């Protein structure tokens, strides 16, 4: 048990720093949006920075492919170490990027390169950590253990928002807009350097070690094709499932986490400090819910939680977002935000293990990485931009229906997919004997 927790701790700590760097771009965008673009409409400047934020998502499929391949061929440890190195480099670039006043659109170019590096990094990080946490967990505890992926992701955002609150109370608005926004990126770069050291000394998972050192009866050709697109094409159904089941979850997640602070500030009219505090408090509760929901999935299965999320998101998104716009103060905004995040927990707490449970060891990292990154590029990364586009067009409520519609599509998938809780990760898809289900043929509980 001690070794399991050590692996989970190291994997989660690295994931936390990765997502701190990823999310501080979004949470501090309101402060540095004007630094890289000429004077003009504030919503237009936010759309420009949101567009660059979305570009990072479009690099995630590339990162998913490259780093997923590394994870399947060189090990989960190698992939996790490489992802944090890329993230550290991107944080340094943003911290030193020149403003529009100094270098014109040269600063935008530096910002764009940094976001491309972040996209590569996070594109591999999600799958590497999802695979690592799922494989490193004790039998019957995969839902609980893998839930720490979103605990660490959310912790990264909480730290980012916490730092933002501290800076808001110690620096003036002018100082934050001038240079204070660079501080979190310096902190992120230093944190990534520490995690790089920890990950270089982390332990590999037993599932991967046994598959590569002891052999699983695979042919030489199958071994050579580990982590390749050709091998992934043998699991097209599972890859499609990852895209479809991610669609609704990723849109809802980014709506109520990344975009929430801006929505409360720009649409609900709350002061930036109040909007930030609402997000901060809501995310603390959200992080605490993840292990509870993950443990529940180990008892009742993954599908009930996924279906609960999709039903709730489909029918509650429009009223929640509408009421949030008219919340008016801290407590109503916090209550509505918590309601939304409780619903989203049905997806976030278990989606990592569900995806990892669909694929055999030799293609698990790439199988999770590439389809998930594609879904995020199409839906998660564009959520904020789509929201601002509707707002600029004067039909902001259209975004609420967009989020609900994406959840409805995923609901169909959850209702038709089979349960994955009881599969054997070391046998899935590898010619398991009778009674041991293969990927895509898992019997419902």
Tell me what you see in this structure.
The chain has helices at about 1-25, 30-35, 40-60, 60-75, 75-95, 100-105, 105-135, 140-145, 150-170, 175-180, 185-200, 205-215, 220-225, 230, 235-255, 260-265, 270-300, 305-325, 330-350, 350-355, 365-380, 385-390, 395-415. The protein is an all-alpha fold. The chain is built from 23 helices and no strands.
CATH domain class name = Mainly Alpha
- SSE class: mainly alpha
Distance between the termini: 26 Å
What is the overall silhouette?
Answer: globular
How many distinct folded domains? 1
| Proportion of residues in β-strands | under 5%
**CATH architecture label:** Up-down Bundle
Secondary-structure blueprint of this entry?
Elements: H1 2-27, H2 29-36, H3 42-58, H4 60-73, H5 76-96, H6 100-103, H7 106-136, H8 142-146, H9 148-170, H10 173-178, H11 183-200, H12 206-214, H13 220-224, H14 229-232, H15 236-256, H16 260-266, H17 272-300, H18 303-325, H19 330-348, H20 351-356, H21 364-380, H22 383-392, H23 397-416
Helix pairs in contact: 1-5, 1-7, 1-9, 1-11, 2-3, 3-7, 3-21, 3-22, 4-5, 4-7, 4-21, 5-7, 5-11, 7-21, 9-17, 15-19, 15-21, 15-23, 16-17, 17-19, 18-19, 18-23, 22-23
